[in-house]
Structures are given as C-alpha cells and as structure tokens.
Amino acid sequence: MPEECADAQVEAALETLARRVEDCLFGCLRAPGVPEGLLAAMEYSLRAGGKRLRPALCLISARACSEETRSGEACSDGGCFGEEAERAVLLFACALECIHTYSLIHDDLPAMDNDDFRRGMPSNHKKFGEASAILAGDGLLTDAFALMTRCADAGLPATRVLRAVGATARAAGSAGMVGGQFLDMLYTGDVEVRLEELAAMQAMKTGAMLRLSCEAGALLSGAGPEKTAALASYGEALGAAFQIADDILDVTGDPVLLGKGVGKDAAARKCTYPALLGLEKSRIEAERRAKQAVAALEGFSGENAALLKGLAAYIVSRAR
Amino acid sequence: MPEECADAQVEAALETLARRVEDCLFGCLRAPGVPEGLLAAMEYSLRAGGKRLRPALCLISARACSEETRSGEACSDGGCFGEEAERAVLLFACALECIHTYSLIHDDLPAMDNDDFRRGMPSNHKKFGEASAILAGDGLLTDAFALMTRCADAGLPATRVLRAVGATARAAGSAGMVGGQFLDMLYTGDVEVRLEELAAMQAMKTGAMLRLSCEAGALLSGAGPEKTAALASYGEALGAAFQIADDILDVTGDPVLLGKGVGKDAAARKCTYPALLGLEKSRIEAERRAKQAVAALEGFSGENAALLKGLAAYIVSRAR
Questions:
Q1: How far apart are alpha carbons A231 and A215 in whole angstroms?
Q2: What is the pLDDT of residues B242-294, one digit of tens each?
Q3: What share of chain B is helix, strand, coil (3-state, %, to 5)?
Q4: How do the domains of chain B map onto residue ranges?
Q5: Residue in A32, A175, A181 nearest the CB of B135
Q6: Do B264 and B250 form a contact (C-beta atoms < 8 A)?
Q7: Which of A18, A165, A238, B143 could disulfide-link A293, Cβ–Cβ 3.0 to 4.6 Å?
Q8: Which residues pair with residue A117 across a beta bridge?
Q9: Is the pLDDT reported for residue B78 higher than 50?
Q10: Is B175 in Cβ contact with A131 (below 8 Å)?
C-alpha cells in the first residue's frame, strides 16, 4: 500500500466520491412543501458543480478512522467502512456541501462581493433575483441542519451526531466562516492588513469548514479524541494550504483550466498571500502547510489515510 | 387553580419570562473569536426588544409537560420543573429567539421588505450596512444551532436534543419559515391569492416556528408522542390566531401602543386576512383559531397549561 497517493489517484478518487455525493445530494432537499421557485434557486447552485471537497473530506476521514479501528480485521463487505454507517455519514457530507453552497450564494450578493458569475454561470441573484438568492442561501443553511440530524435515523448514535452538529455550527457561525467573511469584507479596499490577520481571517473563512469536514468524519465514525484531534489538525493545515494555493491561482491560473475568471482578487483589492508575500514565498508557505497536514496523519496507515496525504500534496501541486 | 389565566396574569408571566430569557440571551453569543463589528450587529437586533414569545412558549410548554408527568408528586423546589432541566431548555429557548431575530433582519433587507425601521429603531442594514446585516442574520441562524446542541452538555439526553434540533431546522427551513417568506414575496403586489394559499403561507412563515416552539418544549421535557402532538396542535392554532391578529392590528392598531407603524401591509400591497375577508370575518377567524388552541390542551391541567390557554385568549384580545 502506498504511503501517499499520486495526483492521478487523488483526482480519480475525488471524482468517484463527487458522483456518490451528488447522487445523494440532489434528492435530499425535495421535501414536500418547499415552494417550487425556492427549490429551483437552491438546486441551481447545488448543481453548479465544484469538487465537492468538503463532503469528500468528511467521508474519507470517517473511512480512515474506521480503517484504523478495524486494522487487522477482515471486513465482510470487502471495504473498510460498513455500508450502513457510510450511508449515514453521506447525509452529513451532503449537508456540508449545502452549507458551502449557501456561503457562495450569499458571498456573491451585490452587497458582498457583487459577483455576476460563478463557475461560468450567472450567479444565483443574477438568475433568480436578490430576494430569492438570500432565501435560497437561508434555506440551504437551515435545511443542512435538518439533514444532519437524519444521520441518527440512519443508524448513527445520537451523541455522536449531536457532537458533530455542534462542531459544524461553531465552524460555520460567527466565530468561524461567517466571521471570516465579515473580516474579508473589512480587509477589502484601502486597508493595511498584517500577515497574522490575513492568516486568521482565512482560517475562519475557509479553514474552519475544511477542518470541520475532517473532524466531523472522525466524530461520526466514533473515533476517540486523539484520532479526532489528528484529523482536525490535518484539516486545518490542509485548509490553509488550499486557500494560499487558491490565492496563487487567482494570479497565475489559466481561466479555461480553472473554469473561472482570474485576477479578481487584485481587481477587488482583496488582501491575499501573493499580495502580501509575493508568489514565491506564498508557494513556499503553501508547501509548508501541506507538509504539516501530512505530518498530522503520521500515526495513520491504510488506503484512506494515504488518500488524505496525497490530497494535501495534490492541492498545492495545482499552484506550482 | 384557574382553568385559563386572565390577560393581566398572562402579561405579567410573559414579562417575567422575557427577563429570564434576556439574561441568558445577551451572554450566549459572546464566544471568543467573533469579530467585534459582527457581534455588535447581532446584539443590536437581539437587544431591540420584543415579547420573546417563542422562547416563552418553549419554556412554558416544557413546564406544562413536566407538570403533567409529575402531577400528584410534590416538587422539592416548589416549582414544577427541575432547575437543571429548566436551564438546559432556556438555552434552546434563546436559540429560538436568535432564529426569530435573524429572520427579522433578513426580512427587512432592501431586496426583501425594504423596511428602514424595526420597533422604532433603524433596521439592522440601516445601522450597519447591508453586508453586515446579511452576515449578522447568517451568524445568528448558525450560532442558534450551536446553542441548541449545548442543551446536551447542560444535562438533557442527546436523543431528545437531536430530535428537537431536527424539528427546529425543518420548521425554520425551506418547507417552513424560509419557504413562507418566499411565498409572502410572491404574493405581494398585483397578485390574486386565494384564502387557502394565504393560510398556507402564514402557516409556514410565522406558524411553523410558533408551533415548533411548543413542540420543542415538549420534546425537551421528554413528553411522549401524545402530549407532544397536543402541544404542537396548540402552537399551530395559536400561530394562526397570532398572525391574523397581527394583520388586523396593522389596520386598526394604535402605532404608539404597538410601538410600530401601521398600514404597512396595505401600502406594500401584502396579502392579509383583512384584505381578503374584511375586519369582522378576520376577527371571527382569529377567535376560532384561539379556541382551537385552547381545545388542543383539553387533557392538560396545572398552572402552565392555564397560562398557555390564557395566552391564546390574550393574543386575540389585542385585536378586538
């Protein structure tokens, strides 16, 4: 078994997981009683694509912990994670994608980043109007919590699910993602921002939910505090590497390959790593954080841990 | 013990509960790491006052169920509900107020109802700007779920808390409050709306969370399915009576006594009961729904049930 998966393996694994998540995701929200127009706005952004990185991290983390627990044991289904538990974690993973999607819709609003396009398509408010976009975001965020609680009906113990729900709300809330977006707005324009402030803002805005995705997978799999902390550290370092790589790609990336416009950060006068440190030092920092992520999983073996380690390398390789 | 509390008793009880809720509420969100400006925007709207009806319903419902369970038993603390359980339910009750407050902030936004004032003060976006108002709402909604999960740390069983969290997310989400606001926007302006459509919209927009507030109290107190269903029915009928009374007061109310402007529904061409049925038939419908609420609690005795019954009468008496 390889210690760390190669980029091609990582891409293939993410692709497979993304299909699995989407199969579940697109059916999740069709509750009776949702007004048609609202559902259309919510589904539009859910279906707009993306790597489905957060749900993938949640699922792989749950599998990695489960793999560790059972190391040496033969699994009757040939895999490393029981089908029933996997289905329950999948619901939680889909909820994380709903939260991510809501955050994109609200970030694009005219009063926020005022983006007319997202992944090459009109942003939600351009397509459905501002009121619908605000409500589609509110609906996705709220429905995500309903979805999470369904893990318990699907067979996971209520204590585990409740702990994961609490951790998610803290990561997504005013001391996490929402607080990070607030600081990002504050740091945009003619403002001097120190590197520590930028790092803290990014740790909240994107880092908290990437960290949480890994932590939630561990919590839901029933991992103990040590393994859960290791996965959380992995996710935190991965999140930092991911955001710096993203900042770099906004300067150097090919818009066709990326499927989105570049140079937007500089145009909007956003504070970023390349703006503060330059490209070369930013690359070094991204590599350092990716290595930190890999190191956090030192005690883990097995194919899912190898995939997580490979994912950290893959994320910065995009920005090389 | 009276069967149904009089208006003055109801007012005094609501006042006492509101102070208890506010004591807890204003400290709840001061988590480390929340950006100062965001916290200020969230607290501004939380502190703007109001009857704190949803948390009160949650607390009284929990007490009413607990009272039933223990009927005939002497309580050592002289009350009908243990102090430890009451403190845990109080956290949940505060979370319901956070959700209510977020919904007011987002409803007031320029893209939605475009209200510059709320309870005689500038609305959140007038005071802090649109971006901050959107994020303050997002923060309050998300933090509310973190607060709810803290009930388990405060001593309530995880299964009960998780069930109440799921019910809250469904009531507040796209098939509940958010969906109702979407329909309200759709029904505003030059649109013909049937009475059944108006009733269904109001049942989602305000009814779902009032119903949920009672249901959550029952679930958290450990009530069985029959009592929980009775409280939910009470809350549903109360919610309808409340909204019709609110519609009537927007036509007939005294802005000084109400502490808010009147005639706003007609000016905004909102669909309401008085607009569809006229005032007299609207009053009859409000009374009918209030009686339905009282009838739902037929099987309950004790002072908290009497308070809930009195509250139903009190709510429509305002619109007489």
A1: 6
A2: 999 999 999 998 877 776 778 888 888 889 999 999 999 999 999 999 999 99
A3: 70, 0, 25
A4: 7-317
A5: A181
A6: yes
A7: A238
A8: A122
A9: no
A10: no
